[in-house]
Design brief:
The complex is a heterodimer of chains A (about 375) and B (about 230).
Chain A: E1 2-9, E2 15-22, E3 26-31, H1 38-46, E4 53-58, E5 61-65, E6 70-71, H2 74-77, E7 79-82, H3 94-104, H4 114-121, H5 136-149, E8 154-158, H6 166-182, E9 186-191, H7 194-200, E10 203-208, E11 211-217, H8 218-222, H9 228-231, E12 237-248, E13 253-258, E14 261-266, E15 275-281, E16 285-288, E17 299-310, E18 315-322, E19 325-332, H10 333-339, E20 346-351, E21 355-357
Parallel strand pairs in A: 3-9, 3-10, 7-8, 8-9
Antiparallel strand pairs in A: 1-2, 1-4, 4-5, 5-6, 10-11, 12-13, 12-15, 13-14, 15-21, 16-20, 17-18, 17-20, 18-19
Chain B: H1 4-37, H2 43-55, H3 58-69, H4 76-83, H5 91-115, H6 119-127, H7 132-160, H8 164-170, H9 180-188, H10 194-225
Helix pairs in contact in B: 1-5, 1-7, 2-5, 3-8, 5-7, 5-8, 6-7, 7-10, 9-10
Classes of the chains: A alpha+beta (about 375), B mainly alpha (about 230).
Chain lengths: ~375, ~230
């Protein structure tokens, strides 16, 4: 359990105030644009930055408490810090880099084994190499391994994918998922990518300009209208916790049930009964007044309009309910006027595209 | 090739230059670290004092050494009385003079190397459980090693050429303080010393050039070794 309640102000006008707690295992994402204060928070947890006030407690051990004058030095906190730029030691081999923290951990407190980490991250063939001969993705994997082998109480990951291109990101993400699922550690994960957050995190803390906007389960926070300016209009959407109902092998499709309905999606690589998370972006949801016949869209959901919010510019946000679940739709203000859309109205939601994240249910933090 | 007298001067020069650098190097690393990494009142003054021997006339440096470390000097009298250390007219004294004069050069080279070390790597090392001292020896020092070694070779080269402070502080005693420059100086005052001066001049050029080439070579080698090439 991580409890954070900190405030700080810097000359030049930047100030930060955040208060949240994260569970003993699983990923908690710190989400926001650059300059929002995400990195500052994990730097404070690591002891690299000292807050002006507040306290930081990890597993009952006080890292920082301004009122009581406690400020543990960095090396005593035992946090595994994965930096955006990897920061491998250039004068040491990959093997020595990995063992740097391990050697400095108490021999009695080494539950994380070298071979297991090398295996988990797929870096066995790199051990003899020097950091400058590695690709960006390999470097980041080694950096994660090095942090894990220091036998940390929690992992701090500062945009570990931000410096990588799309192909490298795709290469590392599965390792991060394995890490989340196989290592029982709390992970604070800084990101400005909502895709990464949805794929990896169970909880999220949204920040803007040093202010904490929302904190809680990812689906709940994502539904928070205050988050719109942070995520960006074109990425706003709803998150549905689904169960795989059946596979249609003939057409390579899967049916996912969620409270209130069914989504038909390209076949997912999870067995029937597995829990998956579906993300439906508002811009992928169109609205029809009557059930449309003869359309290519396969996901037609009977919905009710809960709210219509006109925005500046051409668009309006429509909040929909499908049974107990919520969906968001983005249509033009012109459409709202033409169809006379209003709260309480029964409509059909046409879902053009669904992004599915195959997360394992046992990875959910308690 | 060289007369026994000249060999003595060459050997003495190398000895003085080596030991002067050997003893001053740890202090140079410490001072460079303090100047590069710490902020405290009076830092500017310390900075100035360290670099003073570089800009002062070497004769003045030698005379100041005589005043402080000489037989009746403020510190020198106790060195003799308590430890039996005599600096005047001795090789030890010549070594001190060479060390003081080359110190600013060494500190400067090391400081530049230290400032080039990525502080982010030091932070990373601390998050992995290393104390400040541990970080210095396991990360900072290896990464600044090229600078330390080229600083050391620079110090040796400049100690080989030390003249003014040495002759003022410890005089020109054959076999004790008469290094190559002092021997050349003596030779030019002897009626038939031209050949000797010329031979020692050639030796000087060869030694200095050798030290500079070696510095470059070592620097490249180490950069490759620590993955900085």
């Amino acid at each position: 359990m991580i409890e954070i309640d900190i405030r700080l102000a810097r000359p030049g006008g930047f100030s930060l105030a955040a208060a949240f707690s994260a569970p003993a295992a699983g990923v908690t994402a710190l989400f926001g644009r650059s300059g929002a204060g995400k990195t500052t928070i994990i730097q404070a947890v690591a002891g690299v930055v000292r807050p002006d006030a507040g306290r930081i407690v990890v597993d009952g051990e006080v890292f920082f408490d301004q009122a009581r004058g406690i400020d543990l030095p960095i090396e005593a906190r035992r946090v595994g810090y994965v930096f955006q730029d990897a920061r491998l030691f250039p004068h040491l081999s990959v093997d020595s880099n990995l063992r740097y923290g391990e050697r400095r951990a108490r021999a009695t407190e080494r539950p994380i084994r070298f071979e297991a980490v090398v295996d988990l991250l797929g870096i066995g063939h790199l051990l003899k190499r020097r950091p400058h001969t590695l690709s960006g993705g390999e470097r980041q994997r080694v950096a994660i391994g090095r942090a894990l082998l220091a036998q940390p109480r929690l992992l701090l990951m500062d945009e570990p994918l931000a410096a990588l291109d799309e192909a490298r990101k795709a290469e590392i993400l599965p390792y991060l998922e394995r890490l989340r699922d196989e290592v029982r550690l709390p992970i604070l994960y800084v990101s400005h990518s909502i895709d990464e957050v949805v794929r990896l995190a169970a909880l999220m803390v949204a920040l803007a300009d040093g202010r904490q906007i929302a904190a809680g389960p990812v689906a709940e926070v994502m539904a928070n209208p205050e988050l719109l300016p942070v995520i960006g209009r074109f990425d706003v959407g709803a998150l549905l916790e689904c169960t795989v109902a059946r596979h249609d092998e003939a057409f390579a499709l899967s049916d996912l049930t969620f409270p209130g309905g069914v989504l038909r999606v390209p076949q997912v690589g999870r067995p029937v009964g597995a829990a998956v998370r579906a993300r439906v972006r508002a811009r992928d949801v169109a609205i029809a007044l009557s059930r449309p016949e003869e359309v290519s869209v396969s996901n037609l959901l009977s919905a009710r309009i809960e709210a219509v919010r006109m925005q500046e510019g051409p668009y309006a946000d429509i909040e929909l309910s499908v049974g107990p679940s919520r969906l968001a739709s983005m249509v033009t203000r012109e459409s709202v006027a033409r169809l006379r859309l209003a709260p309480g109205q029964a409509v059909w939601a046409m879902v053009k595209s669904v992004a599915v994240d195959s997360r394992r249910p046992e990875s959910e933090p308690s | 090739m060289l007369t026994p007298e000249e060999w003595i001067a060459v050997r003495l020069s190398l000895e003085v230059a080596f030991w002067a650098t050997f003893w001053s190097l740890p202090f140079a690393v410490l001072v460079a670290w303090v100047l590069a990494r710490l902020d405290f009142p009076g830092k500017g003054l310390l900075d100035g004092l360290i670099y003073l021997p570089l800009v002062l006339p070497k004769v003045v440096v030698g005379y100041l050494l005589l005043l402080t470390l000489g037989a009746r000097g403020a510190i020198g009298q106790y060195l003799d009385a308590w430890f039996g250390i005599k600096l005047i007219f001795t090789t030890a004294g010549a070594t001190v003079a060479a060390a003081v004069v080359s110190f600013p050069l060494t500190v400067n080279a090391i400081r530049l190397a230290l400032e080039a070390v990525d502080r982010g790597l030091e932070v990373a090392a601390r998050t992995l459980g290393a104390s400040r001292l541990d970080v210095f020896f396991s990360v900072t020092l290896p990464l600044m090693l090229p600078g330390v070694l080229s600083g050391a070779l620079l110090a040796i080269a400049s100690a080989l050429g030390e003249f003014g402070a040495t002759i003022t502080f410890v005089s020109n005693v054959e076999g004790q303080t008469r290094t190559i420059p002092l021997a050349i100086y003596s030779a030019t005052h002897m009626p038939d010393g031209d050949a000797m001066a010329l031979r020692l001049t050639v030796v000087s050029v060869v030694l200095a050039l050798g030290a500079l080439l070696l510095a470059g070579l070592v620097d490249r080698r180490i950069r490759v070794m620590i993955g900085r090439a």
